[in-house]
Amino acid sequence: MAPRLAPYNPIAGSGHVSKCQRRWSRESITWLAISLIVIAGTVRVLDFVGHEPILALANNFDMVRIQSCHDFWPADEQIPPGARSHTAPLHDYRYDPAISLDKCIGSTELIFTQPIEWLAASADWTTFSIRWIGAAKGIALILLATTLCALISRHSKISGIVAALSFTFVIADPVNLLYLNGFYTEFSALFSLAGCIGFGYLAVARPRGFTTLAFAGFVFALGLTKVQHAPLPALFAAWFVWAAWRRPGLSFPHVLAPIAAAVLVGAIQVVHYQTDRYNGIRTANTTNLYLGAVLGSSPAPSETAQLLGLPPSCAAAAGQTWYSPGVQAGEVCPEIRRLSRMQLAKLVIEQPSVIVAMARGALERTRPWTPGYVGQVGGEHFGDASDHAFTLEDFVVSLPASVFAFLILAPIACTIGLIGRNLVGSGPAGSGSDVFVLAALVTPAIIAIAVLGDGYAGLGKHAHLSFTTLGITWLIACTVLLRGAGRRTVARSGPTPHA
Length: 499
Known about the structure:
The protein is mainly α. Helix 5 packs antiparallel against helix 20 and helix 11 crosses helix 15.
């Protein structure tokens, strides 16, 4: 009787693993890696929201502009409504429509805070924890990150890994998460920026009506977060036009949506900024720009003051700000209040050294992004959140000024090279390189807009989005360098012999 033969197993019966099986294995491992990275970011966000003691930026008055839209006031009645409580963040607030300060300024931030007002009104809350707002923002951020990572990974697994790493290590850094448990508009700016970059990639990589409209929607939302960010949508729209020019798949209707969003939100903010509600803000911003940044950076303040049509007394006050003694009362250089941003053109033409000095001063003052003049830990006097949670900011702040300047300027040089190569038709056309160009250009633009908006006053906080764009820029750069090194290694080793 002949022996029974075991059934043939194509895997165990030969030393060969099919190409399909190898691909399935690689894709499964990649999806698993992306999922684990996103889960780690999710845990990081939720842990930060629920951390005890509470971690957040204390109120340096700016929060009042959103609180006034909902009549949310400190539960501690020893803190008057509208007053700042800058030494430590507060845990509890009260909903009291009977108190109205008429200081509300519209913002995309209201999308995240308005549901809490509806809940407070329907449930008759007398007090509520700020963690309700932190949880709403945190969940929204997690859902956006998960959606973008999934969509981007379907197009490119490498890009999906970069997106997941950007969420977990950059977006979910305390530099950004400190805005969850609070009423600052910086969170909606971060949320909108992430949507712009993520859906911008998708709109370029896979032109669809949904991705293009989503990109345009986030561009509009970014410009609406606060007046300072109104110029950013124009930069995103210009980048999209450049990307569309390189790709026949992006038709005119696709390009029109983000352009229309940028023009519309820009017009809204220009009109908004001219209203009486912004009178005090405009005066403070102009003073901080010209007195603090322009004259304060000028090698020859007297000559700069004369060029701007200011009296010698203003040159003597160079470096002072709106918060310096006598400035708000009009005792120090009141003439500076009549200047406009257009007069900076004189400096560009006749005193470019002032602009260079301002740029150098901006790089010196951008770090740290988290302001040290407000507390960050509940129950502690000017407590530091970095004592409770790991942040990349500590590493970046420790870098020498020359290295930090390199981190910002080197990607710009690479971007100029990429654009130049694309103009002659020899540059890479990948969506990853497009996003690198975008992030590399947006980083210095954010810092420049912050300086032009309010001088050096609170520059790190005003330019906090640059932390995120800088991190994404270098994640992409490192990925490209590692892939290039891996390909060179494979090329030198030659083809793998088969058994």
